[in-house]
UniProtKB/TrEMBL annotation:
Disordered: annotated span: 271-307
Source taxon at top rank: Bacteria
Name of the protein this chain belongs to: Phage terminase large subunit family protein
InterPro entries, per database record: GpA_endonuclease
Residues covered by the Terminase large subunit GpA endonuclease domain: 1-244
GO MF term set: endonuclease activity
């Protein structure tokens, strides 16, 4: 945690540094409070912590939920002056799930995603669902009244720790035009040592099952780890809005919208004229008989989120 604390960067609380293109948030529900971290995401899932909010009162206090409503309506200013809102907030249902379902239903599934964490690496996707669960509205039970998403917390924790280990360019290299690697996590100077300790408050260990098999498991190093949990939830929210599946052209359009590129990436449409000259970068197609045949064999698909 000391290395995280030492390499913090300076930007004002509540502002989005250059490179942040959209916002998500993760909310961790506790008995006496709800903690929320707001993250900005850029191309390659580079990320910046832009706000840390603690709403006192807990799930039994309506003022606490009103504070979450206000947070969804709030805007954060980007480096280019653009007002940004949270696109999706993922909230944990591990404590007082009925209260979370009721609030999420009122807020709408397009902005709020109730989630249930599972500690497993052996999942086809880090986020699955939704499944429909019962909710309560004004004392009335509503069958299938809320959507619940399942999140593989182990996967996103492993990704977070991998991003924290990425090498960073020196100040001289950045002045020469070097960029941070994709996935780099930026932390601001206004967070304290307690937050940094929470962010790396777990470790991945190998444990033996009763049958003698070994498996990987995340274990706590300390009691409190809300910062890491909120990061996982905000990352799941980014997955839900499709950031892991956006094509390069979509990222380029977002960057152009924030003034980060002089010219947006343009994908040329195929020519309607079959006799048109081929692009220099794309040699003319050969007849099928002249092409080198692809060796037949088993096709292996690789999931992009494991990269």
């Amino acid at each position: 945690w000391q290395r995280l604390h030492d390499r913090r960067e300076a930007w004002p609380a509540g502002s989005v540094p250059a490179g942040g293109l959209f916002l998500t948030a993760g909310a961790d529900v506790q008995k006496d409070r709800i903690e929320v971290d707001v993250w900005a995401w850029g191309h390659g899932l580079e990320s910046w912590l832009v706000d840390h909010v603690v709403l006192d009162g807990g799930p039994g206090d309506e003022a606490c939920w009103a504070g979450l409503d206000a947070l969804l309506s709030r805007t954060w200013q980007s480096a280019s002056g653009k007002a940004m809102r949270i696109l999706r907030l993922a909230i944990d249902t591990g404590f007082e799930a009925p209260a979370v379902y009721a609030w999420a239903r009122r807020s709408g599934s397009s902005h709020v995603a109730p989630i249930k964490g599972v500690e497993s690496f052996n999942r086809a996707s880090p986020v699955t669902g939704p499944t429909y669960v019962d909710a309560t509205a004004r004392g009335k039970r509503l069958r299938r009244g809320a959507k619940l998403w399942t999140v593989a917390g182990s996967t996103f924790k492993a990704e977070t720790y991998r991003f924290l280990r990425l090498p960073r360019p020196s100040e001289e290299e950045r002045e020469a035009g070097a960029r941070y690697p994709a996935g780099t996590i930026h932390l601001p100077t206004w967070i304290d040592s307690e937050w940094c300790k929470q962010f790396v408050g777990e470790q991945l260990v190998t444990v033996r099952t009763r049958r003698g098999f070994s498996r990987l498991e995340w274990q706590k190093l300390r009691e409190r780890n809300e910062a890491l949990d909120c990061r996982v939830y905000a990352r799941a929210a980014a997955w839900l809005i499709g950031a892991d599946r956006w094509p390069p052209s979509h990222w380029a359009d977002l960057e152009a919208e924030f003034g980060l590129r002089a010219e947006p990436l343009v994908v040329a449409a195929p020519s309607a004229d079959p006799n048109a000259a081929a692009s220099p970068s794309m040699p003319p197609q050969q007849p099928r008989s002249a092409r080198s045949r692809r060796p037949q064999g088993r096709r292996v698909r690789r999931s992009s989120w494991m990269a």
